[in-house]
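Protein modeling request. Please complete all fields; requests missing the sequence field cannot be processed.
Requester role: graduate student
Desired output: 3D structure, token encoding
Chains: 1
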Amino acid sequence: MVSESSDADLSEIKIPNVPGGAEAFELAAKFCYGINFEISTENIAMLRCVAEYLEMTEDYAVGNLVSRTDAYLNEVALKSLAGAVSVLHLSENLLPMAEKVKLVSRCIDAIALAACKESQFSMSGRSDSGNEVVISSIVSQPKPIVDWWAEDLTVLRIDIFQRVLIAMMARGFKQYALGPVLMLYAQKSLRGLEAFGKGRKKIEAQQEHEKRVVLETIVSLLPREKNVLSVSFLSMLLRAAIYLETTVACRLDLEKRMGLQLGQAALDDLLIPSYSFTGDTMFDVDTVQRIMMNYLENEVEGNRIGYNADDECGATLLSDMERVAKLMENYLAEIASDRNLTVSKFIGLAEIIPEQSRVTEDGMYRAIDIYLKAHPALSDMERKKVCSLMDCQKLSREACAHAAQNDRLPVQTVVQVLYYEQQRLRDVMNGNLMGGDSPALPPKVNIFSTDIRPVSDELSSLRRENEDLKIELVKMKMKIKEIERATVVSTTSSPSADKPPLPRKSFINSVSKKLGRINPFVRADGPLSNTKARTRPSKDRRHSIS
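Delivered output (546 residues):
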């Protein structure tokens, strides 16, 4: 550069875009002048790149800087996984020169090779059945199994991290084992993201874009196997995806994954905040509804396989569906107090809960009661529509007792509850307690608890409850008659209606009148012996103790 310059008095030249900057150039100059310095994993990346930039090859000197740095990489730095990760991380700031000298690809290949040797999830020496056992062990562990090197990979940039994982899978690393690694990377890279409530976003546009790219890349790398990732982790990713406004495909993928594992979800996993600023509901109901639809579609596919209800697999599916139904009922009860929740949304979400999976209707009744309490301005028609979501025949005794005194329910619903409860108790009194099926109830309904009590105690308890229900039914009938009497206008009145009611004869009055006709001073053989008054003492003497 000095010789090519036309300036005769040149005392300073500018070398643009030197990899590693002034520090790297200073080390290269020390190498040229024979000044000793230490080559380490912290400076090997920039030394290799600056040597290439300055063309310090064997063509100009034997044992030049290019050959010296290559030897150190092959013999020291890339021999260990930690060293390869460190060099790769430092190479991120040396692009595109690090790519040109194939430093990035060499580091990635070294990491993939070392990870597959160190990990218990590599393909070598393991059959598919063995992998099935490992998957089940991952799910059963309270904490996911993470190899010691997974923490080191979290320092890498997302695009480099993606290339490392792809190289690992190409060398035989099982994809399902990437789940814990991705969880660790996501928790570290998405830290500080306030995606758990309403409010204006407290994040800059550039940072939001970077986190969006990270999240979409992580979702694309998620294992396809079921039960590898926890539902809480998927819920965290979905919250972040909604908050960062990722692509629709990314969000739908997460919703589908959650639907496949909905039976393992907790209520908090479904309480996804709504990030709309238009006064909408507090929680994202539409997203949960799509998750539930994905679950039902997966169950339909499972039923097409032809599981028998008596099989262990079929029983597992049924219990899983019952857990999901209970979860959705709890979710309904949680969101029911939201005043912005419309009737159509509440009914739409409740209707997709399979009726056959609801052992009792107590959870649905609780959600309906909370909704009616939070929305007192509903019309009679809307209240009837909401109450039609539950099957009154499947309410427990406690729920029936509560519903019979619930003023928020329509009168027709209360009468229906009391009718079915009386019918159920009547069937029990007729002998259905001994094992007969009630014709008024579905065969799956378990009316009575499984506690072992004598039949006589059960019958006596049922009799008492039946009497209480009869009283409530009479009260309800009287209330209905009063309503009908108030609405019907009588055109004629009976003439006896104006007369005051006759006073009832008391027992004391009748006895005193009869005693007044008796003369205590008349002898028994007197002229009044044939009268009725003489017959009274003889009647009394029959009961005498003398």
